[in-house]
Structures are given as C-alpha cells and as structure tokens.
Amino acid sequence: MFGKPKQHNxxxxxxxxxxxxxxxxxxxxHQLHQLTGDPQLNAVQVDRFRTSVTRCMWTxxxxxxxxxxxxxxxxxxxxxxxxxxxxxxxxxxEPALAGILITLLRWEAEMISRGxxxxxxxxTRLKRVLLGATxxxxxWSSVRPPSGPINHGMVFLHLVIPLVVYLIAEVMPIxxxxxxxxxxxxxxxxxxxxxxxxxxxxxxxxxAVSAPIRLRLPAPMIExxxxxxxxxxxxxxxxxxxDVQDAVKVAPDYAARxxxxxxxx
Length: 265
Prior knowledge:
9 helices, membrane, transmembrane
C-alpha cells in the first residue's frame, strides 16, 4: 500500500540540478575560450572591423566632398546664369578632383593592406594640391559671394569642412596600416605554449607524436597536425607547409611556422 518514495533524479548521480547547469556552462565557457583564442578568428574580426571603419570614413568623406562641390561651383560660375554652358560644366570640376583623390586613397589602402608602403612625397603633394584647391575655392566663394552679404556661418563651414576632408584623407591610410598590423599580429604573434600533456591514466591516441606542439592551437587542429605528420612520416619524407595547410586551414606563413616548431621538437 505504501511503497518506498521515489528517489529524486537530482541525487541519482550525486549531483544537483544546479551543479549540472554550472558544469554545462563551464564546458561551454571552455569551448568558447578555445574558439575565441584561435588566431584565424581574431584576424577575421580585425578585418571586419577595418571594413566597417573604412566604410564610415568613405561615407563622411563623400558627404564632405558633396558640400564642397557647391563652393567650387559658386567660385567658378556663381555669376553666370543656368543658360550658360559654363554654369553646368562648373558642377563637374569638384567631382573630377574628388574622383582623383578617391582613386589615390583606394590605391593607398590596397598597397598598405598588402604590407607595401604607400608613403611618397609625390603622393602627399598630389593630395595637398587637390584638397588645397578645394579649400581655396570654397573660402573665396564664401568671402566674396556672387550675391548678397557675407554669411559668417557659411564662411566657417566652407573653411572647416575642406580641412576635415583633408584630415580624413590623411587618416584613412593610417587606419589601414594599423588594422593590417593588428591582423598580422593576430596571425603571426600568437604566444607559444606547450600543448596539454596526456594524463597518465588516459592512453594517448595512436596518431599522437611523442613531441609536444608549442603553439596555442585548438585541440582538433593539434590532433589533425599529429595525424598528418604520421602520414608524412609513413611516406618517408619531411613535413611541409603545404601538408600543414592540407590538414588545417591556416595562412601560408603560419603554416611555415608550424613546420619550424615541429622540426625543432
């Protein structure tokens, strides 16, 4: 009639529900830490951040050049009527200058992203001439307007906005250079640590090598490298960077570093 009370599931294995939840969170934290420490992931995050910042800078640069276009037009054709062809042609001057500047900035960004210095006196002079012409024409058209009195607010804007555009053009290569350096650092400057040694009570996999890998790599990548090196040893040849890239998805220079580490160990 009266049976034994059922044993609660929380105590069936000596752990409460709270302990199991915390253990699951701990395992998840270990996995997330392992993934977020991957150099390839860090490099991708830096590239995405660089792309986001660059797009914002291009947007504001284009907005500033759009404003300065009106100043250049007033300087060249503010006294003309729309019936005059020169009134329409004057609208093309600033877009042409801006097009040259944008092309130059794109070239600088591409060279810097590939680790090539884009700093040259001629390049700096060209940028200064382009932006200096925009500054002079904008200030002149606001100080001597084609009609009406001088608007001090417009004078201020036509002075400040070309200067801001010039500084944006100078800052964008610096942003590219710093982000490229951060990406390379994430790929090539990972701290060297010896991989976890096998526990004495747990047999090591047959594919494992006797020497540890002194790189901070996720466990699946380490195991894949061990398997690949066993395969290469069975063929009677040395491990190459291409073998490493076939086993794990890493950059060529990082693969070469892995080969050097394995060779020394």
